[in-house]
Each structure stands twice: as C-alpha cells, then as structure tokens.
C-alpha cells in the first residue's frame, strides 16, 4: 500500500466507528483495524485488497456484519473470527482464500454463497453449509483421467493374475508331454498290451 492511500485509509478508520464505507482501496488490510472494538459493520467488498485477513479482526467483539468479498485476499480465514459471538453476517466470496474454515456456530449459519469462488477452503463448517454442493479439497484433484488410469491398472492386474494361474498349468503340461515322448513308458505306448497277453493266457488254459 502506498503512503497516500495508507493515510486516506487511516483517516477513514478514524472517522467512522460503525461502518467503513466501500472505497477503491488497494494493498493489505492493516492489523490496526482490530483497534476499532466498537465497530458493528465492516464492509470492505469490491476493493482491491491483497494479502491476508488480519487475525486482529478477532478483537472486534461488537462486530455484527463482515463483508470482504470481491477482493484479492489470500491465505486462511482467521480462526479468531470464530469467537465473535455477535457476528451474524459474513461474506468471504470471490477471493483466493484457502485452509480450514473456523468452526464457530456463526460460520455454520452462513449460506454457501458466502464462501464461493474460494476453491481452497475446506472443513466441517463448510461441509455443513454447502452440503452436497461442496467437494472437499482432497477430492477436487481427482480427475476423470485419474479414474481411467485406475481402471486400466485394475485390468492389468487381472491379466497378470490370470497369467500367474495359467503359467504353471502350461509348464506342467509340457513337462508331462516331454516325459511321455522321451522315455515312452510301456503303459503309454501300448496301453492294451497287457490285457491282450492276459486274454491269450486265459485262452490257452
């Protein structure tokens, strides 16, 4: 944040204690905003703020409404915001936020749209408000191509298992055939020879 904009921002903070009107302000949100403990409504939406949401916002014990949507904020939503018992409305949508959403009950009461367009957010609170709409970050990386690769791997394993079971049978068959051809046992070359001899002996008697 350049010095001129910073001075203007500090002036705005000193003027209002109830509502911070929307201004086209760039740069980071200063941690000194946590000093405005009597602030009830904080609207920073539709600006060009960058950087993280300061954890000092957790000191705004009287805050009832917080809107930081449509900026360029990154990082996590401070867990300290989960301790603001008077906070009824909040909007973090259309930023670059990520990480675990605070677990306070006020977060669980927000609509899913309050966290929209922040693909890196996750947690039980987000699962509750978004229900079937929200897909956990751990599952977002699974693409159709990955699923196809898994199916192909399963098919390969099936063929390998079949080959393992079929291979010993072929080896055993070839071994038996080799023995029969090379050694030519009498019972194989003339299986009925003994029966004929026995029949002749019986006739002679």
Q: Care to describe what's here?
A:
It is found in: Cell membrane. InterPro entries: Leu-rich_rpt (IPR001611), LRR_dom_sf (IPR032675). The chain crosses the membrane at residues 156-183. It is a single-pass type I membrane protein. This is Leucine-rich repeat-containing N-terminal plant-type domain-containing protein. The chain is α/β, with parallel strands linked by helices and 205 residues long. Among the domains are: 22-128, Ribonuclease Inhibitor (Leucine-rich repeat, LRR (right-handed beta-alpha superhelix), Alpha-Beta Horseshoe); 165-189. Helices cover 41% and strands 15% of the residues. The protein is built from 7 helices and 9 strands. The chain has helices at 3-15, 105-108, 124-130, 137-140, 144-183, 186-189, 193-204, and strands at residues 19-20, 26-28, 41-43, 48-51, 65-67, 72-75, 89-91, 96-100, 120-122. The strands form 2 sheets. It has a 5-stranded parallel β-sheet with strand order 2-4-6-8-9. Strands 1-3-5-7 form a 4-stranded parallel β-sheet, with no helix packed on it. The radius of gyration is 39 Å and the shape is elongated. The termini are far apart. Residues 14-19 and 134-140 have low confidence and may be disordered.
What is the tally of beta strands? 9
Number of helices: 7
Strands of the widest sheet, in order across it, are 2-4-6-8-9
* Proportion of residues in helical segments: 40-55%
Provide the low-confidence segments as ranges: 14-19, 134-140
Q: Biggest sheet, open or closed, and with what strands and sense? A: 5 strands, parallel
Q: What gyration radius follows from the Cα positions, in whole Å?
A: 39 Å
- At the fold tier of CATH, the topology name of the domain at 22-128 is Leucine-rich repeat, LRR (right-handed beta-alpha superhelix)
Tell me the CATH superfamily of the domain at 22-128. Ribonuclease Inhibitor
CATH class of the domain at 22-128: Alpha Beta
Q: Oligomeric form of this entry?
A: single chain
CATH architecture assignment of the domain at 22-128: Alpha-Beta Horseshoe
CA-based shape: elongated
- Separation, N- and C-terminal Cα atoms: 124 Å
């Amino acid at each position: 944040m350049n010095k001129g904009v910073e001075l203007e921002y500090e002036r705005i903070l000193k003027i209002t204690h109830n509502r911070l009107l929307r201004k086209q302000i760039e740069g980071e949100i200063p941690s000194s905003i946590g000093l405005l403990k009597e602030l009830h409504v904080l609207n920073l939406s539709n600006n060009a703020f960058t950087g993280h949401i300061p954890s000092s916002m957790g000191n705004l014990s009287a805050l009832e409404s917080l809107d930081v949507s449509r900026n360029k904020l990154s990082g996590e939503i401070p867990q300290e915001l989960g301790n603001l018992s008077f906070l009824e409305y909040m909007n973090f949508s259309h930023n670059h936020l990520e990480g675990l959403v605070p677990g306070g009950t006020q977060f669980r009461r927000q609509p899913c749209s309050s966290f929209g367009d922040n693909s890196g957010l996750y947690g039980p609170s987000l699962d509750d408000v978004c229900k079937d709409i929200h897909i956990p970050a751990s599952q977002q990386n699974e693409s159709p191509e990955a699923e196809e690769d898994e199916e192909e791997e399963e098919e390969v394993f099936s063929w390998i298992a079949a080959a393992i079971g079929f291979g010993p049978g072929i080896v055993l068959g070839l071994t038996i055939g080799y023995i029969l051809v090379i050694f030519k046992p009498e019972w194989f070359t003339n299986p009925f020879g003994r029966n004929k001899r026995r029949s002749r002996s019986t006739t002679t008697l």
